[in-house]
Amino acid sequence: MARVLRSGPAVVVIAGCVVLPSSAPLAGGAPTVDDETTRQLTVAARSLLERRSEALVQTPRRRARQHAPSEILGIRIAPGVARAQDRAVRELSNRNRAPVEGGPAYTGARTRLSADRAVRSGDRITLEATEHTEVRYENGRLTQSVRRRFEFTARGEQITLVAERVLDPAAHPLNDPGHH
Hints:
two-stranded antiparallel sheet, 39% strand
């Protein structure tokens, strides 16, 4: 119930408010994930995308990791996801590294990932995010934005990345060998 207090010419309305924890469900949806966990999930997912973007750039002394990490910022990477990442990096490293066949090679790549929303349902956490990848080449640059979904499982305090997919079926991410 609201109370109206009169104090001179201004009228102040005081209403009863309930403060909900950060994991409170959104109207009609699953509970959202707290900001710190969302940041961790985003960093883990971004790290994998960055590694694939880097594979597009041929450098003489590239220090590419041999294998995908098994954990990033406390988030485990499921073995199947790690194998898929390793395969993607190999494929991207071995294909034409130019915006058009026979064109100038990519000279740099940068990937950002912005979390759109993270929700939890039971032991599953879903992160929907927008990837922004910019690749540079001799006389230009190309920027691409792609919406992705990352699936995680949570067992106790341990969170594991178990799947990733592109949300827009018409998208052809530069750093995704299955879509190029």
